[in-house]
Write a structure and sequence with these properties.
The complex is a heterodimer of chains A (326) and B (308).
Chain A (H helix, E strand, L loop, with lengths): L41 H10 L2 H18 L36 H37 L1 H16 L2 H13 L7 H32 L2 H8 L4 H37 L11 H8 L8 H28 L5
Chain B lengths: L1 H27 L17 H10 L6 H13 L12 H36 L4 H15 L2 H15 L13 H31 L2 H8 L4 H30 L1 H8 L4 H10 L3 H29 L7
Helix pairs in contact in B: 1-12, 4-7, 4-9, 4-12, 5-7, 6-7, 6-10, 7-9, 8-9, 9-12, 11-12
The chains are: A mainly alpha (326), B mainly alpha (308).
Chain lengths: 326, 308
C-alpha cells in the first residue's frame, strides 16, 4: 500500500474536474497519470472550492478573532471583568464605555470579551471529548461487528434516549448543584463532561456507518492480505478515510455547544459565578430587560456571531467535501 | 412485518430499562437531605425521619429500590411524593400542557418548514432561496432562549400583539408564539431537508416522464414529487415530538407554562427523585415509540421498503 497517488486523505471516486488553464486534461485517469501530474485529492478539491467562497473567509475571520479573544482577552479590553463599582450600576453605554455597565457596576465590554474564553473553551473541549468517545466507540462497533456492535449500539441508544436538557439538568445538579463550592476549572470540567456524555451517540452512529461502508473496501482487504494488524489497519487506513464527515460534524457541533453552554448557564445549572461567560451574562440580564436591554443585547450578539461563524464554517466545508453538491 | 415489529419491541426493552436506570441512579446520587426544611424551622424529629425512611425504602440499596420502583410502575403506580401526593397526579396536570405546546410547535414547524422547503427546492438560487437559507442559518444558530426573549419582548411587550405569558387555560392562540419559539430550530432543519430532497428528486426520471406526458405542473409537484420527497421530512417530524417535549423546559420557563420542565426543576431541587424519574420515564417512552412509528411509516410511504 504505497500508492504514490494516494495523497488524498479520503478515498472516493475522483470527480471530473474541468481542466484548469495549463492543467493536464487527464485528471480522470489517476492510475496511469505520471507522478508530477497528480490529480487533486478530495481535500485538495475541497480547499480549491473553499478558497473562492466569501462565506468561508468571513466565518474563518470571525473564528480567528474569537479564538484570539479567548486566548488573549487583555489585548481587547483593559477593564476588570469580575470586580465592579456599585457607583456605576446600570450606567448606559457611552463613548468611554461602549457597552455600559451591569447591575453590579461591572464593565459589560470587558465581561463580554472575557466571556469568550469560557464559552469557546467549553465548546471546543466538549467537541474534542465527544469526537474521541463517539469516534472510538464507532470504530470498535463498526470494525468488530457481532455482539460487540449490538452491545455498544444499545448503550448508545440508552444515552440517545435521554432528553438533552433534562439529562444535563440531572447530571449537573448532581455534581454542580446549589451549595457546592467548585473551582472555576472544576465547574467548566463538569459542563464539558455532561455535554460529552449526552452527545457522543450521534458521533458514534456517524463513525459506525462510515466504518461499515469502508470496511470491505479493496484496499482494506489488500492491507489485511498483506498481513497488517488490526491496529495498523484502523489507524492507517480506516481512520483517515472515515474522518471527513466527523470533522464537518465537529465544526458545526462547536457552534451548537456554544449555544448549549449558554442555555445551561441560562437555566442556572451550567457555568456560574467565578466564571464569566455569555450565557451567564444573558441569564443575569433577563430581569432587567425592560430597564437596560443593552445588557442582553451585547452578549447575545457576540454569542450569535460565534455560533453562526462555526455553523457557517461547517456548512461551507461540508458543501466543499460533498461531490454531489459541486 | 410481524416478526420485524416483535424484534423492534424486544429491542426497546433493554434500552428502556437502561435509560430509566441511568436516570434513577443519577437522581439517587443527587446530594442533599430530602427532609431538610420539611418540618418548618426546626429539624425533623428523628422518629419522623425513621418512619419516612422506612416508608419510602430509602435505606435499601439502589438496586432494590429500582427493582421495586419498576415493579410498581408496571402496575401503573408511579409512587407518591414525600408529601403524599400521587405522582400520577402531577403527571396528569403537567403532561397535557407540554404535549399541547409540543404539538402546536410541531404543526407550526411542519407548515412553515415544509412550505419554505418546497418553494425553495423548486426554484433554486433565486432571491427567496437565499433568504430562506440565511434565515434558517440564523434559526439554527440562535439558542432558543435568545429567540424566546427577543420575540417575547417585541411581540408581547413592545407591540402588544400577543400576551407575553400563557394563561393557565392554555388557549391555542396564546400558544402560537411559544410554539414558534420551541419549534424554530427544527423548522429550519425541515426547510433544509425538504429543499435538498425536492431539488434532488426534481431531476428524477419519473418527474420528467410526468411532465412529458402532459400532466399539469400542480399534479406533478403535488403528487409525484412531494410524495417521494417527504420521507426524510417525516422522519424528522416523527423523532422531533419527543425532542420537543424534552426540550420545552426553556420555552416553558420564558412563557410561564406549567409543564413538565417546571415540575422536573422543582422536583430536583426538593429531592423528589420519584417525580423526576416518573416524568422522564414517560418522555423516554414517547421518544422510543415515536421512533418505532416512524420506521413503520416508512413502509407505508414508500412501497419499495419492505420489512421482513
Amino acid at each position: 500500500m504505497s500508492d504514490p497517488s494516494a495523497a488524498s486523505l479520503v478515498n472516493t471516486p475522483r470527480t471530473e474536474q474541468p481542466a484548469e488553464a495549463g492543467g493536464p486534461a487527464d485528471a480522470g485517469l489517476p492510475e496511469n497519470a505520471p507522478k508530477q501530474l497528480k490529480p487533486r485529492g478530495l481535500l485538495g478539491d475541497a480547499w480549491f472550492d473553499l478558497r473562492r467562497k466569501p462565506l468561508f473567509w468571513i466565518s474563518a475571520t470571525f473564528i480567528v478573532l474569537f479564538v484570539l479573544m479567548a486566548a488573549f482577552p487583555w489585548l481587547f479590553a483593559s477593564g476588570d471583568p469580575v470586580n465592579g463599582s456599585l457607583d456605576n450600576s446600570q450606567v448606559r453605554p457611552s463613548a468611554d464605555h461602549w457597552f455600559g455597565f451591569d447591575l453590579q457596576g461591572r464593565d459589560v465590554y470587558a465581561r463580554t470579551i472575557y466571556g469568550a474564553r469560557a464559552s469557546i473553551v467549553v465548546a471546543l473541549l466538549s467537541v474534542i471529548g465527544t469526537l474521541l468517545v463517539g469516534g472510538t466507540m464507532g470504530i470498535i462497533a463498526g470494525y468488530r461487528g457481532g455482539w460487540v456492535d449490538a452491545l455498544l449500539s444499545r448503550i448508545a441508544d440508552i444515552f440517545f434516549g435521554l432528553p438533552f436538557v433534562l439529562g444535563a439538568i440531572v447530571i449537573l445538579t448532581t455534581f454542580n448543584g446549589a451549595g457546592t463550592d467548585n473551582s472555576e476549572w472544576a465547574i467548566m470540567g463538569l459542563v464539558i463532561m455532561s455535554l460529552t456524555v449526552l452527545s457522543w451517540p450521534v458521533v458514534m452512529r456517524l463513525m459506525r456507518s462510515s466504518v461499515l461502508a469502508t470496511k470491505e473496501a479493496d484496499y482494506i482487504v489488500a492491507a489485511r492480505a498483506l498481513g497488517a494488524g488490526t491496529g495498523r489497519i484502523i489507524l492507517k487506513h480506516l481512520l483517515p478515510n472515515c474522518l471527513a464527515p466527523l470533522l464537518v460534524y465537529g465544526t458545526i457541533l462547536v457552534g451548537s455547544f456554544i449555544g448549549a453552554e449558554a442555555t445551561l448557564s441560562f437555566l442556572g445549572i451550567g457555568l456560574k459565578h467565578p466564571v464569566v461567560s455569555w450565557g451567564i451574562m444573558i441569564s443575569e440580564s433577563q430581569n432587567l430587560l425592560r430597564v437596560s436591554p443593552y445588557l442582553l443585547f451585547f452578549p447575545a450578539a457576540f454569542l450569535v456571531t460565534a455560533v453562526l461563524s462555526f455553523v457557517m464554517l461547517g456548512e461551507t466545508v461540508r458543501e466543499a467535501l460533498d461531490p454531489k453538491l459541486r | 412485518m410481524g416478526r420485524y415489529l416483535l424484534r423492534r419491541l424486544l429491542q426497546l426493552v433493554p434500552v428502556f430499562i437502561g435509560t430509566t436506570f441511568l436516570i434513577y441512579w443519577l437522581v439517587w446520587s443527587v446530594p442533599g437531605d430530602p427532609f431538610a426544611g420539611k418540618c418548618g424551622d426546626r429539624a425533623c424529629p428523628p422518629n419522623y425521619v425513621a418512619m419516612m425512611t422506612e416508608k419510602y425504602h430509602l435505606n435499601d440499596s439502589i438496586w432494590v429500590q429500582y427493582a421495586s420502583y419498576m415493579k410498581n410502575l408496571f402496575q401503573g403506580d408511579f409512587g407518591a411524593t414525600f408529601g403524599g401526593r400521587p405522582i400520577s397526579d402531577i403527571i396528569a396536570t403537567s403532561y397535557p400542557n407540554t404535549l399541547k405546546l409540543a404539538v402546536v410547535a410541531l404543526a407550526i414547524e411542519a407548515l412553515i418548514g415544509l412550505g419554505a422547503g418546497v418553494l425553495t427546492g423548486l426554484r433554486r438560487n433565486g432571491f427567496l432561496d437565499n433568504l430562506v437559507l440565511v434565515s434558517t442559518l440564523f434559526l439554527i444558530a440562535l439558542p432558543v432562549f435568545v429567540i424566546g426573549f427577543v420575540l417575547q419582548w417585541f411581540f408581547g411587550v413592545k407591540w402588544g400583539l400577543v400576551t407575553p405569558t400563557v394563561s393557565a387555560e392554555m388557549r391555542i392562540h396564546e400558544l402560537i408564539l411559544p410554539g414558534f419559539v420551541l419549534g424554530s430550530a427544527s423548522m429550519a432543519y425541515i426547510a433544509r431537508v425538504a429543499r435538498t430532497s425536492i431539488a434532488e428528486n426534481r431531476r428524477a426520471d419519473y418527474v420528467r416522464t410526468a411532465i412529458a406526458k402532459g400532466l399539469p405542473m400542480r399534479r406533478v409537484v403535488g403528487v409525484h414529487l412531494l410524495r417521494n420527497s417527504l420521507i426524510p421530512v417525516v422522519t424528522l417530524l416523527g423523532t422531533d415530538l419527543g425532542a420537543l417535549m424534552g426540550g420545552a423546559i426553556v420555552t416553558e420557563g420564558i412563557f410561564g407554562i406549567n409543564g413538565i420542565g417546571r415540575q422536573v426543576l422543582r422536583a430536583i431541587v426538593t429531592k423528589e427523585s420519584a417525580t423526576v424519574v416518573g416524568i422522564v420515564v414517560i418522555l423516554v417512552l414517547v421518544y422510543l415509540l415515536m421512533n418505532l412509528l416512524v420506521d413503520l411509516l416508512y413502509a407505508a410511504l414508500d412501497p419499495r421498503i419492505r420489512y421482513e
